[in-house]
Amino acid sequence: MEVYIDNRQTKILLDENIKTIVENVIKECLEYEDFGFNYEISVSFVDNTEIKELNKRFRAKDIETDVLSFPMEDELEGENYIPTLGDIIISAEEASIQAKEFGHGLEREIAYLTAHSMFHLMGYDHLNEEEKLLMRKKEKDVMKKLKIFKQ
Question: What is the pLDDT at residue 90?
Fold first, then answer.
């Protein structure tokens, strides 16, 4: 498992613990779905300005959002090749706002957004109530397994 983390924002201080949390959540999500660990995933932290631009460009929604997921259809092969599962873009600024609104810590919010995005990368969505309930259950199961609760 290769996880690349890129902090492209300066508004919210992200400590070294965030990297460990993100990697643990990614690993647990892959394990939960029995996906194996031979994947490359990138996680970028941005501010609200950048995520709004990305949301407008890729989803035609001219508003800030907390997280965007970009699954990859990677069909290259080779002996030492690691396929790309996708990219996760998290607004650290929006995550901070939501953490305060929900009454928990930033680390917990980033963990949840990472889990949410990982299930998108693995093919899940929440376009109807049934899909939404299934995704929420998976997210909660991962958070429980990692003992990530309100902080």
Answer: 98
